[in-house]
Amino acid sequence: MLEVQGLTRRFHHVTVLDAVSFDLHSGRAAALVGPNGSGKTTLLRCVVGADIADDGEVRFDGDRLVESDPRVRAALACALDDADFFPELSVVEHLELLARAHGVSEPGDVVAEVLSDLDLVAQQDQLPITLSSGQRRRFTLGACLVRPRKLLVLDEPEQRLDVAGRAWLAEKLRDEKAEGCAILLASHDQQLVDAVADTRIELG
Ligand SMILES: Nc1ncnc2c1ncn2[C@@H]1O[C@H](COP(=O)(O)OP(=O)(O)OP(=O)(O)O)[C@@H](O)[C@H]1O
C-alpha cells in the first residue's frame, strides 16, 4: 500500500534523510525510531506531501503519492502537529465538519463515540485553543478517527498523553490494524512501539 524508495532530504547541505526505503502493507504498522533530530518528522512530512524530498519516491497503492489526489485524500489520515484546526470552530463542530467532508453517513454518532473514547465530552463546546495540551493531542488524534482511513500517519501520538491515554492509544492502534488500516508512526515511546509496530525503522 505504501512504498518509500530512496527518500533523501537535505537542509543546507546537511543530509537528514539518506535514501530511506521501506514498504508498509495494510493492517501493519511501521515505527520510525531515533534520537531528536534524526529525521522522523521530516520523513513523515515527505510521505504526506507536506515537504518535498530532494530525491526518492513515495508510492501509494502503486501510484506516486500526490496529496491532492482524491484517492489519497480519502485514505490518508495524518496527525503531524496539534495546530491544524479551524480556530473559530468548537471541538465538536470541527470533528463533525471533518466527518461530513469525508462523507461519513452518521457524523453525529461517529463524533460522539470518538469524543467519548477520547474523554473529551465535557470539552466538546470549547474552542481547540482553550484545551489543555494533552486534550489538544487527543483532539488531534480524534480528527483522524472520525473519518474513513486506510493509512494513518502519526507523529509522536503519545506526546503529552497521560498513562490512561497511552494505554488507550496502544489498544486503539492495534484495533486499527485489525480493521486493515496501515500505520506509519514516529515515536519515542518504546512501550507503544513494542505494542503496535511490526517493523522498526531506525533513523540517525
Ligand atoms: N526546514 C528546515 N530547515 C533546516 N533544517 C531543518 C528543517 N526541518 C528540519 N530540519 C532539521 O532536520 C533535522 C531532522 O528534524 P526532524 O524534525 O525531522 O527530527 P525528528 O527525528 O522528528 O526529531 P524529534 O525526535 O526531536 O521530534 C533536525 O536537525 C532539524 O533541525
TrEMBL record:
Keyword Nucleotide-binding belongs to the record: yes
Record bears the keyword ATP-binding: yes
Pfam families: ABC_tran
UniProt cross-references to InterPro entries, sorted A to Z: AAA+_ATPase (IPR003593), ABC_transporter-like_ATP-bd (IPR003439), ABC_transporter-like_CS (IPR017871), P-loop_NTPase (IPR027417)
Keywords associated with the record: ATP-binding, Nucleotide-binding, Transport
GO MF annotations, alphabetized: ATP binding; ATP hydrolysis activity
Family: Belongs to the ABC transporter superfamily.
Protein name, per record: ABC transporter ATP-binding protein
Annotated organism of origin: Kibdelosporangium phytohabitans
